[in-house]
């Protein structure tokens, strides 16, 4: 399945277009794109046994975040060796974890308001949890995944790295800093969900390209490590980390400026597209 949020309503994307789930199921499932993950076994059983009607055409600009209200958002740092190296860190022995606050989540296409002069890009594969995971072994972890989507972990590096204590979660949570989409793709739709090409370009210039099989901590290990500490709930998101090629790792450093377009893609899932526009400037200076 390819699950999307079309103008705030849960849809399935087929070869013919978008099928409204509430209408197709005759009310068995509601229109809320996030709620469906709490009904995941029933929903997948219905979808597998139902002949869907023809879908309607739509424009990508109508798509919202396919999971607009996750309960928890986990983000993993330094999960590709080349990115750890370009960032000046040793390879981690445990997944470095932070969050992107929920209000930063947005849809796959739109404007990205730049709050400062050091906004960076980070293409990421995002996991959507479909079944509660608590003390789950890596060998069983895929059973708890509803699907995968594309994400961007936009980062305001000045806010993120302000001394003396870095503010990763704040620096990565300005409005629009967590676009996801365009769809959530279930694992059966992908030849190998553990090995997908991922990339990012700016104004047509490729700046990142890798394969998700290069992850230091693969998806099953991330679920094992996270679920050993706290339960992962249906609809939770895991941003799995970014490959090398970010602006802050370049010499000289390169950051986003108004007028640039960022295209982020993952094989078999789709692409995000943001146009950079001026935003409200922020300050990291203390007033106390």
Automatic annotation (TrEMBL):
<keyword id="KW-0378">Hydrolase</keyword>
<keyword id="KW-0479">Metal-binding</keyword>
<dbReference type="InterPro" id="IPR011234">
    <property type="entry name" value="Fumarylacetoacetase-like_C"/>
</dbReference>
<dbReference type="Pfam" id="PF01557">
    <property type="entry name" value="FAA_hydrolase"/>
</dbReference>
<dbReference type="GO" id="GO:0046872">
    <property type="term" value="F:metal ion binding"/>
</dbReference>
<protein>
    <submittedName>
        <fullName>Fumarylacetoacetate hydrolase family protein</fullName>
    </submittedName>
</protein>
<comment type="similarity">
    <text>Belongs to the FAH family.</text>
</comment>
<dbReference type="GO" id="GO:0019752">
    <property type="term" value="P:carboxylic acid metabolic process"/>
</dbReference>
<dbReference type="GO" id="GO:0016787">
    <property type="term" value="F:hydrolase activity"/>
</dbReference>
<feature type="domain" description="Fumarylacetoacetase-like C-terminal">
    <location>
        <begin position="73"/>
        <end position="275"/>
    </location>
</feature>
<dbReference type="InterPro" id="IPR051121">
    <property type="entry name" value="FAH"/>
</dbReference>
<dbReference type="InterPro" id="IPR036663">
    <property type="entry name" value="Fumarylacetoacetase_C_sf"/>
</dbReference>
<dbReference type="GO" id="GO:0016853">
    <property type="term" value="F:isomerase activity"/>
</dbReference>
């Amino acid at each position: 399945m390819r699950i999307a949020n079309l103008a705030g309503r849960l849809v399935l994307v087929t070869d013919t277009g978008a099928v409204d789930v509430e209408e197709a199921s005759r009310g068995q499932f509601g229109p809320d794109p996030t709620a469906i993950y709490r009904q995941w076994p029933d929903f997948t059983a219905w979808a597998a046994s139902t002949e869907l009607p023809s879908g309607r055409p739509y424009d990508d600009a109508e798509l919202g975040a396919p999971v607009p209200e996750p309960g928890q958002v986990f983000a993993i740092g330094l999960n590709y060796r080349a990115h750890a190296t370009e960032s000046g860190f040793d390879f981690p022995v445990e997944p470095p974890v932070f969050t992107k606050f929920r209000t930063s989540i947005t849809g796959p296409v739109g404007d990205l308001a730049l709050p400062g002069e050091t906004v960076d890009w980070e293409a990421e594969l995002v996991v959507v949890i479909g079944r509660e995971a608590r003390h789950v072994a890596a060998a069983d972890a895929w059973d708890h995944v509803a699907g995968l989507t594309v994400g961007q972990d936009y980062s305001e590096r000045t806010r993120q790295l302000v001394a003396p204590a870095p503010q990763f979660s704040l620096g990565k949570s300005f409005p629009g800093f967590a676009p996801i989409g365009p769809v959530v793709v279930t694992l059966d739709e992908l030849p190998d969900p553990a090995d997908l090409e991922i990339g990012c370009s700016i104004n047509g210039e490729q700046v990142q390209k890798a394969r998700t099989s290069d992850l230091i901590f693969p998806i099953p290990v991330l679920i094992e490590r996270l679920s050993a500490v706290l339960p992962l709930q249906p609809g939770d998101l895991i941003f799995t980390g970014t490959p090398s090629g970010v602006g802050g790792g370049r010499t000289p450093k390169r950051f986003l400026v108004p007028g640039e377009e960022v295209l982020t893609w993952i094989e078999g899932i789709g692409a995000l597209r943001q146009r950079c526009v001026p935003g409200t400037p922020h300050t990291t200076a203390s007033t106390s």
